[in-house]
Write a structure and sequence with these properties.
Strand order of the largest sheet: 11-10-9-21-22-23-18-17
Largest sheet: 8 strands, mixed
Number of helices: 14
Number of strands: 28
CATH topology of the largest domain: Purple Acid Phosphatase, chain A, domain 2
Shape: elongated
Radius of gyration: 35 Å
Strand content: 15-25%
CATH superfamily of the largest domain: Metallo-dependent phosphatases
Number of domains: 4
Structural class: alpha+beta
């Protein structure tokens, strides 16, 4: 399994490979196997209904899942796994040739197994780790945190480079207890690719208890994480199965975990590490990178930055805790990930402009942020959210962003194509808190989960209610709805932006839809079931399908954006050349000119259409060219006289001038004009020569 290397560099690589092969994997194999039952099986999970407060009961889920062998296995495995902080995370690199890793190791690790102090990651081709590369981790101390045994940790980060398309690699990393069992990672194509879009795993959110320093709280937190992680894994497996394992990566709209530092007992951020363990536990994540977005539950402590190795990370958009905005490229798509927990929109603008300018070769531009600025559930109408909307949308439109992916609202929605939304009134972030709560209060038994009934009626005489309703009307953004060209379920070359809000991907928490569906919404859905979206990207199209995790049924129609703008240069040349024919229209038959005129009009319309596709331009050119070639000249019988001189074999024909471009003289030796000969001329006097002697003509 170990190849012979001649160079010093190769000898060093060989030494690390040998260390790796000699490592005691026995301990690691047990830990690595813990998540195996989270892989896809034939047993479909059953999701418990959400409570009226929008939260799922961990106890109910445990009881429901406990009827399956899958859940029973996971429940046992969790008891060992929950104390392991060394789970690895994979994130997209700056482009498809790179892959980022991050993991924890105890600070007090005795690394005599590797004869080094800094952990390493090994990645190579195939089972035998051929051409393996060894990467030394960049370490950062995890500040002010220790586990239940008093152990402190370092965060380790590695970027693997030089990866090739459609190739299987294996990697192993030193987690402080030896090298792990090799995990498989297969790269995908970059021409046409798929990624999953998910929202708010928010592992631990199903815990109903407040953060108190009690055994009861910690037990409830562990049970909630156990349930949420199981559902999170089910969603990832469903997405992989739906795409036949062809997902290139996952995009998460934020809130990976639930418990913020300020809500933890004694504000001890280490107590949220069990939630990161649950988040990273699915077996799918050992081979599936996730591009994470900072949510409000991720943002108030540095643990997020320790667990995820974000590429092209910037200090622009930083809230000084979890870093700023970042981006990556994949194929012909540019992904811009914003930390909108930082409200400095000027910095986000600068980052977007700089990123777009540096990546002009990307045809698709996709932004992800946490807040649902065009959502349709409980958060969507909050002034805090809509104020952010009107600051960001002009930036997106100025930089030709195609789609904006958001979360935060734990309910699915898809906007119409939107362009030019503007703020109509000034309002503070918390101005309608009381009215929003009142309007969403459907009681203990809401009549429907699709449309929340609400308590504020349109004919309310309450002054505050009416002010609130006026506000709601102003943020419907009806005027921002773009008139689009459609072909089936696809919009063709739109100028506006699509906004999508993901539902919960774990079922840890759900929010009701607002009582009045906003005008800007094309479709929305909430049935208290985890969901995920699959986005297929090609050269000319971006196609979205969204599914519920429990039965893989679609919750929305297939929606596509097609970008195929045609080059009108040749068409415009042909239009200009055809204009001269218009001046001579009387020279052509009525029918042939009518066909030509229609073709010319159609060609001009296509040439003027900024959204015209390549196919439309090519077809318009073809139709015009064919119509031009099919023009038939009119036949006008002109008066003429012929003069023949005695003894001569020629005759001179004089034609009365007519409004035509030329003349045709036809002659024959019989009245039926059989085998007639023709002569064309632009002159009114023409001599026919070479006539036969003593023959009638």
């Amino acid at each position: 399994m170990i190849e012979f290397f001649k160079s010093q560099k190769d000898m060093k690589r060989q030494r690390y490979q040998e260390v790796y092969m000699r490592s005691n994997w026995r301990k690691q194999m047990m830990i690595s196997a813990l998540a195996l039952t989270l892989s896809a099986t034939n047993v479909a999970p059953v999701f418990a209904s959400a409570a009226p407060d929008g939260k799922t009961s961990a106890a109910d889920i445990a009881q429901t899942m406990g009827t399956t062998a899958q859940w029973n296995r996971w429940e046992k495995e969790w008891e060992t796994l929950k104390n392991d902080w060394t789970q690895i995370s994979l994130s997209p690199g700056s482009n498809a040739t790179e892959l980022n890793f991050a993991w924890y190791t105890p600070k007090q690790t005795n690394d005599d197994h590797s004869n080094a102090n800094v952990p390493k990651l090994i990645i190579g081709e195939g089972h035998n780790m051929k051409n393996a590369k060894v990467y030394e981790a960049e370490q950062t101390a995890v500040k002010d945190e220790q586990d239940n045994n008093g152990e402190t940790y370092n965060s380790n980060k590695v970027t693997a480079t030089g990866l090739k398309e459609n190739k299987t690699y294996y990697y192993s990393y030193d987690n402080g207890n030896g090298y792990t069992k090799p995990a498989e990672y297969t790269t995908k194509s970059t021409n046409n690719f798929s990624f999953a879009f998910v929202g708010d795993p928010q592992i631990g959110s199903s815990n109903e208890l407040k953060g108190k320093d009690t055994k009861e709280f910690y037990d409830a937190q562990s049970n909630a994480v156990k349930s949420d992680a199981f559902n999170w894994s089910s969603t990832l497996n469903a997405a992989l199965e739906k795409t036949d394992d062809q997902l290139s990566f996952v995009v998460s709209a934020g809130d990976q975990i639930q418990t913020t530092k300020k809500k933890l007992p004694n504000k001890d951020a280490s107590k949220s590490e069990i939630e990161y363990t649950g988040y990273l536990s699915p077996e799918a994540l050992k081979s599936l990178p996730v591009a994470t977005t900072v949510g409000n539950h991720d943002a108030d402590n540095a643990n997020y930055t320790y667990h995820f190795n974000r590429t092209n990370a910037s200090e622009l958009g930083s809230n000084k805790v979890v870093g700023g905005d970042y981006y990556f490229k994949y194929g012909n798509a540019l992904f811009i990930m914003l930390n909108t927990q930082d409200t400095n929109v000027a910095e986000h603008k600068q980052f977007i402009e700089q990123t777009v300018a540096a990546n002009k070769d990307c045809k698709w531009r996709i932004v992800t942020l946490h807040q649902d600025i065009y959502g349709s559930a409980e958060h969507s109408n909050e002034p805090e959210i809509t104020n952010l909307r009107y600051q960001l949308t002009p930036i997106f439109e100025q930089n030709d962003i195609d789609a904006v992916l958001t979360g935060h609202d734990h309910a699915y929605s898809r906007s119409k194509m939107l362009l030019g939304g503007t703020k109509a009134n000034d309002y503070t972030d918390d101005e309608f808190d009381a009215e929003l709560k009142k309007d969403m209060d459907a009681g203990e038994n809401p009549t429907t989960k699709i449309v929340a009934p609400g308590n504020i009626k349109n004919d309310s005489t309450d002054e505050k209610d009416q002010k609130y309703l006026t506000y709601l009307k102003s943020i419907m953004d009806e005027k921002a709805i773009e008139t689009v060209k459609k072909q089936g379920s696809s919009v063709i070359n739109p100028e506006g932006v699509l906004y999508m809000t993901a539902g919960s991907s774990s079922g840890s928490k759900y929010y009701d839809l607002v009582p009045r569906q906003q005008t800007y919404i094309a479709h929305r859905w909430q049935e208290d079931v985890p969901t995920y979206s699959v986005v297929d990207v090609t050269e000319n199209s971006l196609t979205i399908n969204t599914y519920r995790t429990d039965n893989d049924e679609k919750i929305d129609e297939t929606f596509s954006i097609t970008k195929s703008k045609g080059d009108t240069t040749s068409l415009n040349v042909e239009i200009k050349a055809s204009e001269s024919i218009v001046k001579q229209k009387d020279a052509y038959t009525t029918e042939s000119y009518r066909v030509f005129e229609q073709a010319l009009t159609g060609a001009k319309e296509v040439a003027a259409d900024k959204k015209a596709t390549k196919d439309e331009v090519e077809n318009a050119l073809k139709v015009l060219t064919n119509a031009k070639a099919g023009l038939e000249k009119k036949v006008v019988v002109a008066k003429a006289s012929a003069k023949l001189k005695a003894g001569k074999k020629k005759v001179t024909v004089k034609i009365k001038k007519a409004s035509v471009s030329g003349y045709q003289i036809k002659y024959a030796s019989n009245k039926n004009f059989k085998k007639a000969k023709t002569r064309n001329t632009r002159k009114t006097i023409y001599t026919i020569k070479s006539l036969r002697s003593k023959k009638k003509c």
